[in-house]
Amino acid sequence: MILFLTDGVLSSQTSLKSDTSIVLYGPDGYASVPLHMAQTGDKGTWKALAELSSIGMTLVLATVIGLAGGYYADRWLGTMPWLTLAGLILGIVAGFVNLFRSVKTAERESDDSR
After folding, report:
1. Is 26 helix (H, G, I), strand (E, B) or coil?
2. What is the rounded CA–CA span in Å between residue 75 and residue 64?
3. Bridging pattern class, strands 29-30 and 2-6
4. Residue 35 CB: number of other CB atoms within 10 A?
5. pLDDT (tens digit, 9 = 90+) per residue, 36-88?
6. DSSP structural state of residue 63
7. What is the rounded CA–CA span in Å between residue 57 and residue 103?
8. Which of 6, 13, 17, 69 is most buried when burial is the number of CB atoms within 10 A of its CB?
9. pTM for the structure as a whole
10. SS3 79
């Protein structure tokens, strides 16, 4: 069944396809659907959630990358615990630097919106 929208009137036409596939379109193209339901300039909860989760993932990934880099450098040079600890500390510091940068950016955006 194919549904047509013409001048606000919905009409149907059967087709060779199964009845489970329904298509809604007008004579000149598909029915338009608003892409953004939120107002322009409004971040929305999903964007805020994405920013928060990216900060958390950055903290974890920076720590793991620093730890792995220090571990492999220790294996390569034979200085077992020291470069692993140095890499771990560098990874933690890099994660927190990114956290503070994200907080400063969020503060600037909230001040600009006022």
Report:
1. strand
2. 16
3. unpaired
4. 5
5. 454 555 567 787 788 888 999 999 999 999 999 999 999 999 998 999 999 99
6. H
7. 15
8. 69
9. 0.58
10. coil
